Model the fold of this input.
Amino acid sequence: MTPIVELRRASKAFRGVPAFEDVDFTLSRGEVHALLGENGAGKSTLTKVIAGVHTLTSGHLMINGEEMVLNTPSEALSKGIAMVYQENSLVPSMTVAQNIYLGNEKAFNRLRGIYIAAQQFLQSLNFHVDPSALVGTLGAAQKQMVEIARAVHHRAQVIIFDEPTATLTPEEKSYFFKLITTLKKQGVSVIFISHALEEALQIADRITILRDGRLVASDRTENFDREKIVRAMVGRELTGEIYGRTRVRAARARGAKVLSVENLSMGNMVRNTSFSIFAGQVTGIFGLVGSGRTETLKVVAGVMKRDFFFGGAVKFEGRPVRFRVPAPAVQKGIVYVTEERKAEGFFETMGIAENIYMGELSKERGGGLKIISMAEAVDLAEDWRKRLNIRAIDPNAKVIELSGGNQQKVVIAKALVQQPKLVIFDEPTRGVDVGAIAEIHHFINYLADQGIAVVVISSYLPEVLSISDRILVARQGRIVEEMEPTQATEERIMYAAVH
Amino acid sequence: MGFADFVSDATARLLGGIGRSSITVPVMDGPLKPNDILEEASEILQETGIDNLVASVDGFLFTSGNRLLRLQEGQRPEPVMEFEAEIMSLAAAPDGGLAIGLDGGGVLLRAPDGTQHRLIEAAAANCPTAMAFSDARTLIVCNGSRNTGSQDWQRDLLELGRSGSLLRINVADGRCETIARKLAYPSGVSMMPDGSVIVSEAWRHRLLRLRPGRADPEPVLSDLPAYPGRINRGSGGGYWLCAFAVRSQLQEFILREHSYRKLMMAEVHADYWIAPALRSGLSFKEPLQAGGVIRLGIHKPWAPTRSYGLVMLLDSTFAPVASAHSRAGGRHHGATSVLESDSGDILIAAKGAGKLLRIEAATLSTVADRTKLGSAI
Done:
């Protein structure tokens, strides 16, 4: 049977630097095809070629056996190819329903009719999102749901999902997998990019692995296991490096109490929550989306403001603090490494050195004049590039051109250059490949070993279990459980998070 | 409340509840994470009003009301002496002497030869909440409040009592010197190896250190989620600290609502005040306690806890290391005195429950070891 999508000896280069080379790829009708690889391996570029975002430098793209060049995403959509992007492409000032129908509008649209239709459509997908809500007010997971719904709504024959489950809760993930199964039964083909290898093993019919822009393995899923995939992705054994620390050594000693949050409240998201953070330890905070963990730590770091009346207290090193903006928090020694790196983490049009130097500049309180030295910025960037192993094709490249893992390392470097006493990592390995995960975890452990108080917010239980010296569980806006890693299991944590 | 306090309080409220007006309570987590160790401690004696565990040359002594008793292994407690007033505190001197603090009756000294005399009068120490000998000739006494006696500690809290003091008494000549004033109900005292005095200041939820030759006390442990009471040195260089009750947001709220508090004290019987207690659940008229849900097999109270059982192990720098709890809904509440036996077992007088409890040394060691902070054990 003719494959619905086929790439033959396909190559794509940016300014002469290859993103992928000589890749042969086929997608059959009704097939779920997982595309795996480290960040920077070329997965996103390859799928963007299929979705009409980029064109091939050399090689052939065949749709239903017919060679063609797709110059725009709308051209690809007209051929039945839709892509759900990792960083969503919704219009934040429009409602959920309007976003779903965007590009499919009739000459005369009745908003009420759109809302009713969107409501029914979202319900059929089991996505609990209000169709009249503005997309800008939604959380990351709900935005992802709308993005998926939009692709499904376009009745595409090929849907490309780039890291679709990164922001979804376990329950939402199971709905999503059911949705993929339904789509498959309807003859829709799915390309599925994920860093969660178990998901690929669970859902895919076929797995293709890219490494450094080249295809290293492509086979039926039953011929793979986790170790084999990891070996193919990174070219070395990583089993002991990722999620294995708890089996190697016990929790670190607890240092002095650095942060004490008392009865903190912020709207409906943070409800009278209390907890402490100690120096020299990694405190993992687990919670489902909407549990208020990110908002709580954002209040601590001055990104958000607590309730004006009776919003509780935050004590840093024994003294009450109340940051209305992040700058004074940074100067006191609290930094927050955001989960939304593209929106909040870096200046995408600036280079690595400029971004890291921004962190250095924000360390000092304004008032006096600061002479900006690009030589200092370059030296600083070089130092952090070596410490965090930031890999860039071009040292002057804009951060937006880096892979997800390297972008995350730049965000981390930008935060750590501020010499913090408390570092809050929010989903530090979301959208990051397995090789970079190990490096980031190693660095987080190094920070805790240096006596810094580290908080890691994560939705991924194996990560929380492996990296934490102490685990806090958030639910409905408050910390509801504290566990030691020796007592914690995935089931126990999840039980606390949902009950 | 003075005008300045009024302005400060009003400003704090208007600015969104900052400082004391934020009405927050430190969380019990980390080394103070609730457990059931105190609740599951073995009961070795039932004695109403048990308090003041002391190891003397005559053996283990404790008090019950106005009686001084000796604890004997495998036998009923033997009465040693009886006094005219309730015994509030007890301290054993290294030479075998015994200081006895009486409610509203000053401090008596029982010499090693059995003779007894009044060391200081009631006027100087009407509320001797705790005592410790710094050496055979010097006794340090916590006078909890100038105005109230032992039964009225809740009133002192609700009146924001700051009239406590710390006295140094020369045992030989009875000379009394006040070494710290305006303390908020000092309720525990212990000596450090360098001669510093450690005192628990209950209503300010902290431990203070008074260095020899220095007038200003310095806080060594602040912001406790409970009201600290008696403190004893442990065998490993750390300290055992009893907290006779825990703080709650409701209580903190009541403490800043002056008119309400005055009205409550005037119109409601003291047993039913919104105030911490050594025991609760005696009457349905009491403020609600122990309403809650069971989560992960543990009772999670949502109503403020009126009474609680809490003993903490501190390391030599006074950082909490481990703790034993009897939680809301438990029985072993109101722990007022703790003593480490020669075998390393921990004896605890739960005055609220009227029980003498024993925790095996290994139990708390395990908790501390599990958090890799066993330095004090």
Notes: The radius of gyration of chain B is 20 Å. Chain B touches chain A at residues 16-19, 22-27, 29-31, 33, 222-223, 249, 295-296, 319, 370-373 (CB under 8 Å).
